[in-house]
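=== Structure Prediction Worksheet ===
Name of assembly: unnamed complex
Input type: mixed (protein and possibly other molecules)
Chain count: four
Listed entries:
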Amino acid sequence: MEDLRSTISAFIQERDWEQFHSPKNLAMALSVEVAEIVEHFQWLTEEESQNLLPEKLAEIREEIGDVMIYLTELADSLGIDPVEAAKAKVAINGQKYPAEVLRGKASKYSEY
Amino acid sequence: MEDLRSTISAFIQERDWEQFHSPKNLAMALSVEVAEIVEHFQWLTEEESQNLLPEKLAEIREEIGDVMIYLTELADSLGIDPVEAAKAKVAINGQKYPAEVLRGKASKYSEY
Amino acid sequence: MEDLRSTISAFIQERDWEQFHSPKNLAMALSVEVAEIVEHFQWLTEEESQNLLPEKLAEIREEIGDVMIYLTELADSLGIDPVEAAKAKVAINGQKYPAEVLRGKASKYSEY
Amino acid sequence: MEDLRSTISAFIQERDWEQFHSPKNLAMALSVEVAEIVEHFQWLTEEESQNLLPEKLAEIREEIGDVMIYLTELADSLGIDPVEAAKAKVAINGQKYPAEVLRGKASKYSEY
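=== Predicted Assembly ===
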């Protein structure tokens, strides 16, 4: 992660793009890149989404890369490590969605 | 990352949620979580987005955690490591957007 | 539509919210409201999405209302009528995706 | 609106696309089209977003058309009229966000 963070940071600085990369704009760019993942899946059945052709998978891998880049940069601009934030959130979710209560249900916390 | 991946995987299995977590559905959930980040920024100026209050920042950290969780799980379901995918994509972007040509411009590749 | 447009415009003015409602911010708000629709569908099968319970449908109707409100306001801020824009786009799409070629295929224009 | 609804419906039937257009999939497609609007605004300042060049505006008009098409089709598949849903939601919002309390504040209902 530290590698990735510093590579992205150098990439942005070399292009003088810090001026455009406010957290607000990075959040927008993140949402646009996620939509490029969604676009690959929109007309597939769930089963098809589990059995992608290699060339489709390669395209989605690039989109996942783009999402990870913007997530890392957004988080970095706010002094946050996304992997640490995820670990902390898994712990919170473990309390919000107790395994014994929710087994096999997709219901959200607010609905059960 | 490997830590995070296996923690999420165990979390899902304990709740029998694999049945809901097709790549298609995970892509949708990822887009929903990203929108929860965007929601925090939608009415802020760019400058305000760079000067968040601690409690707002703590909320956004949780949303970033959720996005990272779904991104990791989606990538894992496709056999992809998001950090490796991001590093590979930074290299591709370096060729698509050469620093000497694009310095200070937000133009996309297709526009210059 | 003209009714709706002027009702929304009055609503915003009464609250002095024009200052926040730049096209950029309205585009963000639109994406957040669409995600609230997506959230209702993310764990449903396609078949379940075609057979919603009345209370779920009522909630989605409210979200569709919110999306339509922001779409109308965004379009209005740019001098665009969304219904006219849609009619014009259907005509363009009719040429991009000829019925006789694409019957029964979800492929995008760029893929066939 | 009724014109638009029936034109879209004929367009889909001529291409045998009903099979792909479950409400779940239409919600995904709607989110993808909204992201294409957001993409136009992501690196602009709010002020720039209020002063678009004619060719940019023409592109955004097409994207607004696409969003309106999918919103109409999604709503139609659920038996909902999006304009009526919006009018009903403006009335609800009028009670949730009273003008006299919220004038000039972007705060959401839940925050004041």
